[in-house]
């Protein structure tokens, strides 16, 4: 599949780049996408939630009232969950939410996500460029030239591009990542994906295995 290469002004350079069909033109596997996104979101959870249970509450251990004859339920401790300030029953405990997923399934999910964007005409290939200084205004002009300034966008770099990254940092709805940081969730979370030409080799090499 051949796709036109644009410059950073959004104009056609007259060149075309060959995209691998096995990465950008497969039949999307929705279940693989689901599994990969589920794993990514699970890994974002810190798992540090904690509530004190009965044994961890600070309080007297004396028996509150006599066992019989009060006409009310038995009560042996102020730390009981039925009293205000008592421990919590089956409260959350710290845990690890990490999930395992085969590398093959993850690659399939990412190929499926990229293929969806290609099918929706939401994938742009832009020739590599550098910004002389980190300027948000110049980055907005770049998105405007592609017609995606008001939509969620993901810009994928081949490697470190400090000025481009810093220029995007103050803006909501857009994200700049390197090819090695690309994942299924980021692809699908963006309305449009912009791949700098230099990132294609690494993406196709990693996902085409």
Automatic annotation (TrEMBL):
Disordered: annotated segments: 51-77
Keyword Ribonucleoprotein appears in the UniProt entry: yes
Query: Does ATP-binding show up as a keyword for this record?
Result: no
GO biological process: any one?
A: translation
Which keywords describe this protein according to UniProt? Ribonucleoprotein, Ribosomal protein, RNA-binding, rRNA-binding
Q: What GO terms are given for molecular function?
A: rRNA binding; structural constituent of ribosome
Q: What does the entry list under GO cellular component?
A: ribonucleoprotein complex; ribosome
Q: Record's family?
A: Belongs to the universal ribosomal protein uL4 family.
| PANTHER family, per database record | 50S RIBOSOMAL PROTEIN L4, LARGE RIBOSOMAL SUBUNIT PROTEIN UL4M
Which HAMAP family did the record assign? Answer: Ribosomal_uL4_B
What does the subunit section of this Swiss-Prot or TrEMBL entry state?
A: Part of the 50S ribosomal subunit.
**What is the role of the protein in this entry?**
One of the primary rRNA binding proteins, this protein initially binds near the 5'-end of the 23S rRNA. It is important during the early stages of 50S assembly. It makes multiple contacts with different domains of the 23S rRNA in the assembled 50S subunit and ribosome.
Show the NCBIfam families listed in the entry. rplD_bact
Q: Please give the name of this protein.
A: Large ribosomal subunit protein uL4
């Amino acid at each position: 599949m051949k796709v036109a290469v644009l410059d950073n002004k959004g104009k056609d350079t007259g060149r075309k780049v060959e995209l691998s069909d096995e990465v950008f033109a497969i039949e999307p596997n929705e279940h693989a996408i689901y599994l990969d996104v589920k794993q990514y979101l699970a890994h974002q959870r810190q798992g540090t939630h904690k509530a004190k249970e009965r044994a961890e509450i600070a309080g007297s251990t004396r028996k509150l009232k006599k066992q019989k004859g009060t006409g009310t339920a038995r009560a042996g401790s102020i730390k009981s969950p039925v009293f205000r300030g008592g421990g919590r029953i089956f409260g959350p405990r710290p845990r690890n939410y990490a999930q395992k997923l085969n590398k093959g399934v993850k690659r399939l999910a990412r190929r499926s996500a990229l293929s969806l964007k290609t099918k929706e005409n939401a994938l742009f290939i832009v020739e590599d460029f550098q910004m002389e200084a980190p300027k948000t205004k110049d980055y907005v002009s770049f998105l405007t030239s592609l017609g995606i300034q008001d939509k969620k966008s993901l810009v994928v770099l081949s490697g470190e591009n400090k000025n481009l990254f810093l220029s995007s940092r103050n803006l909501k709805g857009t994200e700049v990542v390197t090819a090695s940081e690309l994942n299924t969730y980021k692809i699908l979370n963006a309305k449009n994906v912009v791949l700098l030409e230099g990132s294609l080799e690494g993406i196709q090499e990693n996902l085409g295995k």
